[in-house]
Amino acid sequence: MLSLYRNAFGGLSRQVWLLALVMLINRSGGMVVAFLTLYLTQKLGFSITDAGFVMVIFGVGSICGTFLGGKLTDLIGYFPVQLFSLMLGGIMFLLLSQTQNYYVICTLVFFLSAFGEAYRPANTASIADFSTPETFTRSVSLIRLAINIGWSIGPAVGGFLASRDYTLLFWADGLTNIGAATLVFFFLRSSRQKRADIKANKVEIDPKDSAYRDRKYWIFLLLTTIYAVAFFQLFTIGPVFYKQVCALTEIQIGYILGLNGLIVALVEMILIYKIEGKFEKLNLISFGASLVVVNYIIFLFSHNYAWLIIGILFATFSEIFAMPFMNAFSIERSKPHNRGQYSALHSMTWSIAQVSAPLVGTQTIAHFGFDALWYILGSFGIVSAVGFIWLKRL
């Protein structure tokens, strides 16, 4: 078993491990977003409507930041984009802790989200540069592992800090961003220079080759968005369903959601190591998309705690099979000169899904109830699964 883990994590470059460390530090500080609504309503006294509008602005900022990050990555390279994204994001957190004016908060939240999300396409482009085609998917999985561990640490520490003083959340988030930027500056700067020298000797690729003209890629993005909307409901509307309909306690809900991160951390790298290169990527993505449907079928027919755990297991393996290979498919269709463009469009699909998923879920529940939502989301899963198989035939 130890040998299997060693092989699964072996062969990855030092730079990829450094990127994973940067992501771990960055996501471990991901506390403010989890508690932002509570901070605005409980600490500053804003209404739920006002707090909801701030979260919408956060989503819009993430979409704009992802798009801009991809453009800048292709123009000036991934190193400065990652560096300034982390540094400016850290400064935004510190500034946000010092204001109570609603309009200033809205402005700072927009720029905070934009700077933060600009990091994602630059990070994906750098992973591709620091890995081989054979190790890229495992490199992505390593970064995802760092994100999952970081998201597990962040909210737990954030709850402890928020119970004492909400301002501490902003300082923790800001300082971890600045710390991650410092790592990028000192440890990835030399790697970037070496890679630049290598790229200078390559044959120039036609600059007209644009992701915006890749029709099959746009189909892929549409299917990815449909899947992402279905998947994100597990973590936005799912806890409400567990509490109101299934009558679970907060501890039980925490166990179910925590199981997702635990399984991803323990299984994903090994599974990717064993199956990568043996199956078509779109087949694996389609299989992963189909697994999320099982969770919504369980929601329709059982509220038993044991069955709900089985449901989250299917959803977790849906994530494991689909998401790493979605990243790999995106990068494979790109070239070095437009990699940021492809990465940005792919990242934007997830930002759009994060914004639209709660809206779709809450409005459907308000007018038609939970069961109608599960039918819709199950249909989304089926459409995306069939769509990826159809895309493969194209």
Automatic annotation (TrEMBL):
Coiled coil: none annotated. One of its GO terms (cellular component) is plasma membrane. CDD domains: MFS_MdtH_MDR_like (cd17329). The keyword Amino-acid biosynthesis does not apply. Its main location: membrane. GO terms for molecular function: transmembrane transporter activity. It is a multi-pass membrane protein. Residues 15-394 form the Major facilitator superfamily (MFS) profile domain. InterPro entries: MFS, MFS_dom, MFS_trans_sf, MFS_Transporters. Keywords: Cell membrane, Membrane, Transmembrane, Transmembrane helix, Transport. The chain crosses the membrane at residues 16-40, 46-68, 75-96, 102-120, 141-162, 168-188, 217-241, 253-273, 282-299, 305-326, 347-366, 372-391. It is found in: Cell membrane. This is MFS transporter. It comes from Emticicia aquatilis. The lineage of its organism: Bacteria, Pseudomonadati, Bacteroidota, Cytophagia, Cytophagales.
